[in-house]
Every structure is written in C-alpha cells, then in structure tokens.
Design a protein that fits this description.
β7 (203-210), α8 (217-230) and β8 form a beta-alpha-beta unit. The strands form five sheets. Strands 9-10-8-7-6-5-4-1-13 form a nine-stranded mixed β-sheet. It is 39% helix and 21% strand. The longest helix is centred in the first third of the chain and has 19 residues, at 30-48. The protein contains 17 helices and 19 strands. It has two domains: 1-17 and 363-452, Arc Repressor Mutant, subunit A (Orthogonal Bundle), CATH 1.10.10; 19-322, pyruvate-formate lyase- activating enzyme (Alpha-Beta Horseshoe), CATH 3.80.30. It is globular, with a radius of gyration of 21 Å. It is of the alpha/beta class.
C-alpha cells in the first residue's frame, strides 16, 4: 500500500492530449476550427467515416457524485426545442462538409439521454440519418438511466441500429445511493437489463464507481455479487473523482470524512476486480472489464482499442464531431468545445454560428505525444523507434519514469516503454510523465482528481 500513498497524486484521465485545462485557447478561433475541421473531414470521410457524439444534458434530479455537464429540470417541454437546436447545429456542419457524412460511430451521452421520450429520440436520430450514410458496421450506443429507461426506449433505439447500452449503476447499497441521491433498487436494474437483452442489445455495460461516500468492503462485496448475478457484458469500474472545487454544491453534500481513505479506496477496487476476474471478466485498459466474447475485449486483445473524449471505443476514426451543449470535437488537428450553458448554446446556434467557444490547435509535438499517451492508455506500451515518433519530450518523460521503473511499474527498453502488471493501476501517473504541457506549467491550483 506504500505505492498507493506514493502515487495517489492528482492526475488527468487522458481522454485527450493536451488535457482540457492545458488547451491554448488564446491561439484558437472559430474560423480556425471551421477551416481545419472542413479540411480534415474531406480527408477522412471517404476513407474511414466519422464518429458522432450527441450530448443530451437534461436530468430530473442531481446525482451528487456526478461530474457530467447537466441541466436539472422536470420540465419535459425542453426536449423538442433542444432537439431542434441540435439539428440546426448538424445542418451548419453539413454546409461545411459539402458531402454526406459516413457515420461509423454514434453515441448518445448526457446528462440523461433517456430523459427524452422515445418519440423525440426517434425524431432526432431519423433526422440525423436522413442527411448521412450510416455504415453497416457502425457502432451505436447510448447511456441509460435504469430509473427512466423504458422498454419503449430500448425497442425504439434498437430499431434505429443501436446495439450497446450503458447503465449507470454506481452502487447497490441503499445508504450509498441515498447520500449520492441516486436511488435505484436491484429489481429495477434487473428489469431494465432483461428488457435490453429481450430487445436485442448484444452488449450491456454497467457503470460502477468505487470510493463513493459511505462505501465499505462489505457493501462493495454485495454490489459486486449482485452485478455478477446480472452478468453484464462489460463493466466500467471508475474511481470516484472528488472535485468539489469544480463540481460545486453537488459534491458538498458530504465531506471528505464520509469518503474511504486512500488505502480503503484501493481495497474496494481490488475487491471488485478480483470478483470480476474470478467470474470470467478480462481487464481492458484502465478501469474497464469485459467478457471474452465482447467486442471491447476483442479490440483490446487485437490492438484495436481506441480512446477519445467518449472514453474507450472499439472504433478508431480520426474525426469526432460533438453536437450539443458542452460537446467536444476532435478533427485530428484541433479540439473544439461547445458552449456549456444550454441557453447560450441555443442562442449561438439559432444565430447561425457554430457554438464552439474554446479549443486548441495541435502542434507537431502535441500530435506525437498524443499518440504515445494513447498507446499507453490502450495497449500499456509505446515505442519511438522511428524518427517521426521521437521528440525531446520523450527524453524528458523517460527521466520522470526512472522512479516508477525502480518501483517496478514500467520496463524501459531501447526505444520502448512497457507497463508491468504491477504498474497498470498507476497508468495515469505513467502517462503523466510524458505530459510536456503539464510539466512546463505545473498547476498552482487543484485541477484534477487523484489518480488512484
């Protein structure tokens, strides 16, 4: 456990490099984004298609652990105006594209996508499909809340090509559910899981979180056993990110005294992991487990696993378009994030403007380091034997890995770094060694959650 204490420092989750706090927004403009996005789209659309992320931000209640961009309301009258704005934003991009987008990946995230009625989700998706080509092998997925995902939602989305659903479970212990304001009994989760299978979904994911307030070894054991009874195809087992300085009042409903200590938190993870592995699940990347027949494990096993702003995916495209408030896009040469506030986002779109308000233009070093960090996150190794994969920041990163190497977390070989089994829990720390922008401007305030 000494390693836990040693390496449990604040570290990014590396869904991108550079990470959002280190974007150079001052050198970014909406015109830059329009030009680079348009050029990149024309390069990749015919070859590989694009990924599409749609952010649906509404929730009926605040879950206090949540780090997503959300808008709390019980007024479902917001659904149709928001969808109309999404489709206007889509139309703006279509004008820049000049040709029909070929969709290889589509994900509905939130917020709570199943806040929206099945009729409105159908309207949104059919309108998107009308102006695009949905590729035969497209990976379509959505996030569902067990409390409001109906059989109608599942049947509708399945009929529209969706094959994977991720349910936010977090924990089955009532005391934990109560303090994080997320009450969903086991019976409710069992029902929606059975309905998803009956509707034809071939991959069901459960999101679980360790390190939540009031969690104990006993409650984690019980939760993990109940999850094993339902046997989802995938499990995302996330470390709770306690960042009240970012998330505001939600995470101030409890204090650090309610949270497991560092050693206790890691024990919760190891307990869950041991039960998953004992029941046939395989470790995949960071914080993920999958049954051997699931495509996520197969992608990891075959070296095809990819990581982007949506997390781990089985599809690798060079162009990710984000629609909706707070969505982030990645055209390979630049990142762009939409306005976060729903009202301001709608105003920009309705004025005929792309709603991007900040972003980052990637230089050559950024692109190179992104490739290495991506490789570490997805394959637990990276190499720089070719000249076009080398830069001074690699040498600097290797110096920072000297202590992790002494601790047995990595093997540093000629032109290569490999993460050991012992080092996998510390992958965020290992990637951070190559984060040149962070080390050149170390944060003076709290930016990231702890790594362990």
């Amino acid at each position: 456990m000494n390693l836990i204490k040693k390496y449990n420092t604040a570290a990014p989750r590396y869904t991108s490099y550079p990470t959002v706090p280190y974007w150079d927004n001052g050198k970014f403009s909406r015109m830059d984004w329009q030009d680079l996005m348009q050029a990149s789209f024309r390069e990749v659309n015919a070859r590989e298609g694009i990924s599409l992320y749609i952010h649906l931000p509404f929730c009926e209640q605040l879950c206090t652990y949540c780090g997503c961009n959300k808008h709390i309301t019980v007024n479902h009258g917001v659904e149709l105006p928001y969808i109309q704005t999404l489709l206007k934003e889509w139309s703006l991009y279509l004008q820049f594209f000049g040709e029909k987008p070929r969709i290889r990946e589509l994900h509905l995230g939130g917020g709570t996508p199943t806040f929206f009625s099945e009729e409105n989700l159908s309207l949104l998706l059919k309108s998107i499909y009308k102006d695009a080509e949905l590729l035969p092998d497209a990976a379509l997925s959505f996030e569902g809340h067990p409390g409001n995902t109906t059989s109608g939602h599942l049947k509708t989305l399945r009929s529209l090509g969706f094959d994977r659903v991720s349910f936010g479970i977090q924990d089955f212990d009532f005391r934990v559910q109560e303090i994080i304001h997320r009450i969903q009994p086991y019976e409710q989760v069992a029902r929606v899981t059975e309905e998803a299978r009956a509707a034809g979904f071939s991959s069901i994911n459960f999101d679980l979180v360790y390190g939540l307030p009031l969690q104990t070894v006993s409650s984690m054991w019980s939760t993990a056993e109940q999850v094993m009874d339902l046997r989802p195809d995938r499990i995302s087992f996330y470390s709770y990110a306690h960042v009240p300085w970012v998330r505001g009042t939600g995470q101030r409903h409890y204090t650090e005294a309610d949270l497991p200590a560092d050693d206790e938190k890691r024990a919760l993870y190891e307990l869950g992991r041991s039960l998953f592995i004992a029941n046939g699940y395989k470790d995949v990347g960071m914080d993920h487990f999958a049954l051997p027949q699931d495509e996520l494990f197969q992608a990891y096993n075959n070296g095809r696993l990819h990581r982007n702003f949506m997390g781990y995916t089985v599809v690798h495209t060079s162009f990710l378009l984000g629609l909706g408030a707070s969505s982030i896009s990645d055209c390979g040469r630049a990142y762009a994030q939409n306005e976060k506030q729903v009202g301001a986002y709608q105003q920009l779109v309705n004025a005929g403007l792309l709603p991007v308000v900040r972003g980052h233009l990637l230089n050559q070093e950024d692109r190179l380091l992104r490739r290495h960090i991506q490789s570490l996150m997805c394959r637990f190794e990276t190499s720089w034997t070719r000249q076009d994969t080398q830069c001074d920041a690699i040498t600097e990163g290797l110096q920072r890995l000297q202590e992790p190497e002494r601790d047995g977390l990595v093997e540093v070989l000629p032109g290569k770094v490999r993460v050991t089994e012992k080092g996998k829990p510390f992958i965020r720390n290992i990637c951070m060694a190559f984060d040149a922008r962070l080390w050149r401007n170390l944060p003076q305030t709290e930016l990231f959650s702890k790594a362990i």
